[in-house]
Q: What sequence folds into this?
């Protein structure tokens, strides 16, 4: 069952892109890649500082920056959030706050209960604030990207 959940969190977001038009995919893919780079770096920092730990993942080699989160739901989720909220900063921040709260305080607990993930040294509140800070960086990056075009 855990494998099914992990694979679904990786594959379903990618499949959802069939519902996004190609110009939006091109427009928001760079910010999604930036989010992925940032999340990969944070995952490496988290591994070193024991902020959290993933016990299960898609492959034995991806436990530091699990593919199903960093390269699945987070990458594609970033594109969908921008698709629906870009140029509406406060709505963007509200949506991010809701999603980050859900992930940090609810979904991570579900992953913990299923022993897919373990909490570590970082509090849920600090993790939430870190994710909100990243959201601001991503928004500023997308503003810059749009000005270039």
A:
């Amino acid at each position: 069952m855990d494998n099914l959940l992990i694979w679904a969190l990786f594959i379903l977001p990618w499949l959802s892109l069939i519902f996004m038009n190609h110009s939006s995919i091109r427009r928001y893919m760079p910010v999604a890649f930036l989010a992925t780079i940032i999340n990969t770096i944070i995952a490496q920092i988290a591994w070193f500082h024991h902020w959290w730990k993933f016990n299960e993942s898609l492959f034995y080699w991806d436990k530091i920056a699990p593919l199903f989160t960093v390269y699945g739901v987070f990458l594609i989720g970033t594109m969908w959030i921008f698709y629906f909220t870009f140029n509406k900063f406060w709505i963007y921040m509200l949506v991010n706050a809701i999603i980050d709260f859900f992930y940090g305080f609810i979904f991570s607990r579900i992953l913990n209960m299923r022993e897919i993930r373990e909490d570590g040294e970082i509090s849920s509140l600090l993790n939430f604030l870190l994710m909100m800070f990243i959201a601001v960086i991503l928004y500023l990056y997308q503003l810059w990207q749009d000005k270039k075009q």
